[in-house]
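Async update (no meeting this week)

Hi team, since we skipped the sync, here's where things stand on the single-chain job. The sequence we agreed to prioritize is pasted below, unchanged from the tracker. I ran it this morning and attached the output directly underneath so nobody has to dig for it. Comments welcome in thread, and please keep replies under the output.
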Amino acid sequence: MSSRKKQTYAQQAVGLATMGLPLPSPVQKFFTTRLGALLFVVAVPALLATGVITVTFNNGMPSVQFNQQRAAVVEQQVQAEAIRAAQAAENYRAQRQQQNSVR
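Output:
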């Protein structure tokens, strides 16, 4: 007798959220794995908030659109922020190293 592995809350929520969506079986199975559920819970709200993905309802059926132009703009913003953060971290490390060498 095989026992089912316990699902995380994220897996349960994603399973419910994607139940009515017309997704291919492999995609549905991926979203119910631990990694897939985590990506879904983190990435989908971020993509919705940034406007990369939009959801509209026609006669009660959800329709998902992917905005490639918005995705390109968001990608550029993320790259610029990553560069800025790396430079700030390097400056902080240099200051800490300089302070430690003075002591």
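Quick observations from my side:
The CA atoms of residues 51 and 87 lie 28 Å apart.
The longest strand covers residues 53-58.
Reply here if anything looks off.
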